[in-house]
């Protein structure tokens, strides 16, 4: 090898002769063969060295014999002028097949027992308010509502939710894309349904019916981001349990008959005002950023 520069070297005449003679060490021969794949000058030098050996003469005779024995290729008529090929129409998938794929991608948000469970939560709040006259129905709904989408996402994604999770996670449509698809489906069901239910309930000192939307979004994204480290179920227990502990902690120590007012006051501190909503918006943005950084973790099966 010439030009001692490890990045740029060429085959010398002596090195080519040793290679042609079969006396070059195996490692140097391998390096030479890799080099001539991308260097035409060195490839020509090595070819000339090989042709000058006895083996080169034998190879030349064999080549002439093969070319002489090969039949002459038939003369083909001139090809007609090429016309741009028409793109074949893509067959449409049957409506039933597309609907089945959509239901599978959406997950339990539109199938299974999760949707009836959300309806039971909404109906139970309405029943408490108008059936029993319970004044804290909206406060209780606002305390539970942010946990509902967290539970929905947890039940929608992971080995416990999909028998083919390991296969789906490795496909182009799986991983984080599938998790976000099911998250959107969960939010599309729970956000409008529970917000509308809150609007129908008496306020009784509780925050506005839509005050839980940003906290619900932030907790859901935070649960997904934590799932990339801890698994779906553990992340849901941490985020949902942490929220419930924060809003329900003052209730057990409240005086008799004041638990509803204490819960409404705690919810107002957590949900009402520009400061609280800005903090939840910032938490949602940070969770989304962490989720984007950790997206590769969703390409493999998550721990439960």
Automatic annotation (TrEMBL):
Biased composition regions of type Pro residues, renumbered to the chain: 71-88
This protein's UniProt keywords: Membrane, Transcription, Transcription regulation, Transmembrane, Transmembrane helix
Naturally occurring in which organism (per UniProt): Streptomyces pluripotens
Keyword Transmembrane helix annotated: yes
Region of interest (Disordered), ranges: 71-92
TM helices/strands, residue ranges: 113-133, 139-158, 179-203, 209-229, 236-254, 274-293
Domain of life: Bacteria
Protein name, as recorded: Zinc-finger domain-containing protein
Cited InterPro entries: Anti_sigma_zinc_sf
């Amino acid at each position: 090898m010439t030009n001692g520069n490890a990045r740029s070297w060429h085959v010398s005449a002596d090195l080519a002769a040793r290679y042609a003679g079969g006396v070059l060490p195996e490692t140097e021969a391998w390096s030479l063969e890799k080099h001539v794949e991308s260097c035409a000058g060195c490839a020509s030098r090595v070819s000339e060295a090989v042709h000058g050996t006895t083996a080169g003469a034998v190879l030349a005779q064999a080549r002439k014999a093969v070319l002489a024995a090969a039949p002459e290729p038939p003369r083909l008529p001139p090809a007609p002028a090429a016309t741009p090929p028409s793109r074949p129409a893509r067959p449409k998938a049957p409506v039933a097949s597309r609907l089945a794929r959509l239901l599978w991608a959406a997950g339990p948000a539109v199938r299974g027992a999760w949707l009836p469970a959300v309806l039971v939560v909404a109906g139970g709040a309405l029943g408490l308010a108008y059936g029993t006259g319970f004044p804290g129905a909206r406060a209780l709904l606002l305390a539970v509502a942010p946990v509902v989408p967290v539970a929905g996402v947890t039940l929608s994604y992971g080995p416990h939710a999909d028998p083919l999770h390991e296969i789906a996670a490795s496909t182009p449509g799986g991983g984080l894309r599938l998790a976000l698809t099911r998250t959107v489906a969960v939010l599309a069901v729970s956000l409008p349904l529970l917000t509308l239910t809150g609007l129908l309930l008496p306020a009784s000192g509780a925050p506005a019916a839509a005050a839980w939307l940003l906290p619900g979004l932030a907790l859901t994204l935070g649960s997904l981001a934590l799932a990339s480290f801890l698994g779906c179920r553990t992340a849901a227990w941490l985020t949902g349990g942490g929220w419930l502990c924060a809003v329900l902690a003052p209730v057990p120590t409240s005086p008799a008959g004041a638990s509803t007012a204490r819960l409404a006051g705690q919810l107002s501190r957590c949900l009402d005002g520009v400061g609280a909503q800005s903090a939840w918006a910032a938490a949602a943005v940070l969770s989304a950023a962490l989720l984007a950084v950790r997206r590769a973790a969703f390409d493999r099966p998550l721990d439960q």
